[in-house]
């Protein structure tokens, strides 16, 4: 069984980490693309809370704060998929359009090494580019033309997290984060009465490595109540961001270039592509019944390479999240829906991305539920997890774009004692 589980995980990771065409907004044209916050179903369903989130049962691993996994007692193999639906309105001409995509948003494998040490490895997309924008232009003499902006690629994230319980109340954790991928942005311009295309292209390869250090303290109170404090810090970025800028002209036959003439070309290496992040959280709840938490995230501003005609920066940003869960009665086997965990949350984010002096902020609500397998019990809790997230990003001010989004996430968690030694057949 152990070999089968590991083979499934490695095969799935290898087939999907190469490249996924994840649809996203035109803001993906800036920097390293459209950054995903966290693709786990339970986190997204609770507004993004994770720093003080200690799951009461034994079947989940939290990569955002690896210190919070002291209750993991069995092996957890998880797969997540996301369906994104985005609806845009342009502040430039009032046009409206939509974009839809579905993709694998996470794979993870976690298990206890001992009563005090818990280990998890996971994959998720960190950022993505998949956009195409066309607009009209003209020369000073009135000659009409067309500009096409398009980009593709993405950055993947693989995490290896370890949590250690120093005491029953206090735990620490460390996650090693590896980012890798390729992204490209292209501007092509063509004018009437000619088939020659003028192009500006920026192609980048990214390899980056950093750490997330976390801690959590949980105080048991009277009447099965509990108070939880958590903190995490992502730091130590060692980034290799290689960008090649090319200005050229060529003819296109379908998608094939011919008679390409390189006007200018240069390469540049950039460090500190992935920003540092500090997260603080506090939570209050009742054992195996309900939990509510608030969280504050701060992200430092960093600049990244992109096409030179784009005016943007990465500012210092913050995010405020609130959320929690409710479980009516996990021991009520007469009523299935009493054993379903219901999740809820909300968030507001001051955008990391600044375009033409305007921060691209977002806010939203989220809901979700975890449905236990019919034969699951509290010690081996396999679940089907569903989540929904709706909100708004951006603005139509300064000729920008407002995005309304409706995202669905589905996950499946196979939880069992696969790695436990068998003493009897």
List keywords for this structure.
elongated; 2 helices; 3-stranded antiparallel beta sheet; 14-stranded antiparallel barrel; mainly beta; 425 residues
Task: Describe it.
The chain has 425 residues and is mostly beta strands. Helix content is 5%, strand content 60%. A 14-stranded antiparallel β-barrel has the order 2-3-4-5-6-7-8-10-11-13-14-17-18-19. Strands 12-15-16 form a 3-stranded antiparallel beta sheet, with no helix packed on it.
Total strands: the figure is 19
Which geometry do the CA atoms define?
Answer: elongated
The biggest sheet, with number of strands, parallel, antiparallel or mixed sense and barrel status, is: 14 strands, antiparallel, barrel
| Secondary structural class | mainly beta
- Give the overall average pLDDT: 87
State the helical fraction. Answer: under 10%
Strand content: over 45%
User: Uncertain segments of ≥5 residues (pLDDT<50)?
Assistant: 1-19
Overall radius of gyration: 24 Å
Short description:
With 425 residues, the protein is mainly beta.
Write the layout of secondary structure elements.
Elements: H1 2-17, E1 34-35, H2 41-45, E2 75-90, E3 96-112, E4 117-138, E5 144-165, E6 170-191, E7 196-220, E8 225-253, E9 256-270, E10 277-286, E11 290-299, E12 312-314, E13 317-326, E14 341-350, E15 353-355, E16 358-359, E17 362-372, E18 383-394, E19 401-416
Antiparallel strand pairs: 1-4, 2-3, 2-19, 3-4, 4-5, 5-6, 6-7, 7-8, 8-9, 8-10, 10-11, 11-13, 12-15, 13-14, 14-17, 15-16, 17-18, 18-19
């Amino acid at each position: 069984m152990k070999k089968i589980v590991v083979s499934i995980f490695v095969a799935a990771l290898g087939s999907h980490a190469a490249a996924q065409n994840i649809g996203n907004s035109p803001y993906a044209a800036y920097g390293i693309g459209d950054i995903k916050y966290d693709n786990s179903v339970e986190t997204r369903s609770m507004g993004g809370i994770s720093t003080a989130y200690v799951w009461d049962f034994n079947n989940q691993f939290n990569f955002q704060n690896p210190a919070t996994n002291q209750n993991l007692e069995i092996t957890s193999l998880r797969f997540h998929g996301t369906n994104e639906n985005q609806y845009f309105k342009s502040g430039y001409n009032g046009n409206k359009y939509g974009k839809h995509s579905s993709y694998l948003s996470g794979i993870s494998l976690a298990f206890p090494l001992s009563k005090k040490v818990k280990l998890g490895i996971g994959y998720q997309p960190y950022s993505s580019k998949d956009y195409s924008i066309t607009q009209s232009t003209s020369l000073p003499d009135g000659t009409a033309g067309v500009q096409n902006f398009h980009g593709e690629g993405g950055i993947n994230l693989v995490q290896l997290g370890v949590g250690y319980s120093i005491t029953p109340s206090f735990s620490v954790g460390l996650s090693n984060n590896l980012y890798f991928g390729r992204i490209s942005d292209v501007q092509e311009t063509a004018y009437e009465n000619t088939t020659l295309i003028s192009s500006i292209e920026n192609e980048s390869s990214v390899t980056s490595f950093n750490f997330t250090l976390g801690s959590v303290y949980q105080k048991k109170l009277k009447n099965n109540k509990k108070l939880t404090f958590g903190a995490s810090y992502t730091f130590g970025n060692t980034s290799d961001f290689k960008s090649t800028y090319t200005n050229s002209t060529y003819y296109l036959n379908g998608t094939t270039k011919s008679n390409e003439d390189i006007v200018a070309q240069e390469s540049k290496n950039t460090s500190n592509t992935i920003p540092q992040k500090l997260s603080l959280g506090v939570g209050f709840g009742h054992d195996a019944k309900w939990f509510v938490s608030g969280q504050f995230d701060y992200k430092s501003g960093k600049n990244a390479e992109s096409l030179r005609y784009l005016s943007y920066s990465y500012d210092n940003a913050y995010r405020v999240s609130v959320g929690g869960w409710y479980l009516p009665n996990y021991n009520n086997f007469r009523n299935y829906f009493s054993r379903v965990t219901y999740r809820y949350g909300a968030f507001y984010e001051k955008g990391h991305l600044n375009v033409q002096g305007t921060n691209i902020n977002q806010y939203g609500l989220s809901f979700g539920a975890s449905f236990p397998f019919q034969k699951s019990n509290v010690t081996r809790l396999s679940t089907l997890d569903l989540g929904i997230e709706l909100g708004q990003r951006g603005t139509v001010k300064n000729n920008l774009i407002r995005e309304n989004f409706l995202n669905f996430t589905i996950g499946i968690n196979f939880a069992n004692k696969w790695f436990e030694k068998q003493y009897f057949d």
